[in-house]
Amino acid sequence: MKARTLRLLIGLAAGSLVMPQSVGAQQAIYIVRHTDPPSTLSLDEIRDETPLSESGQQRARMLAERLKDAGITAVYATQARRTVETAEPLAKALGLEIRVHSYEDSGGLVHLLRSEHGKDKVLVVGHWSTIPEILAALGDSEEIKIERSAFDNLFVVIPKGEQAPVVLHLHY
Questions:
Q1: Which candidate, 104, 50, 106, 103, places its Cα nearest to that of 81?
Q2: Longest Cα separation, the chain
Q3: pLDDT bucket at 33, cuts 50 / 70 / 90
Q4: How far apart are CA 125 and CA 78, in angstroms?
Q5: Is a pLDDT exceeding 80 seen at residue 6?
Q6: Domain span including residue 161
Q7: pTM
């Protein structure tokens, strides 16, 4: 039932994107946290080169299955191996290159999203600490806190020009 609800919500969000929008407005930005690293490591032992666990790889494939028909035309991930591995199944399915950006430059990423992907649907794979920064830079005024142990967050951001964006916070 969870998967059906997630597909419905993503479908509703994607369906609402065919409504008229301001010129230059992005259609949607899907923002996810990377999936699960190995459970044998403590949160403090995780480094940039830490890969996904088997369950994390499965969750990344599930994410790709859920988003493959969303019309995504660009995929961004940070330099951390687990964000790239989270993005890989969808990028491969869509024939897209993963564009790597620094997790220390959320503002620069948002600038790229606005300047290079003004009318696109984009996937961004980030971290518990960067996603709230990205959402705030996109105009979301709600305070978002992501637990370091939660790997199933999915945000769908629908910019509304000068108005605050519509933000759906889902779990997959």
A1: 50
A2: 48
A3: very high
A4: 7
A5: no
A6: 2-171
A7: 0.83
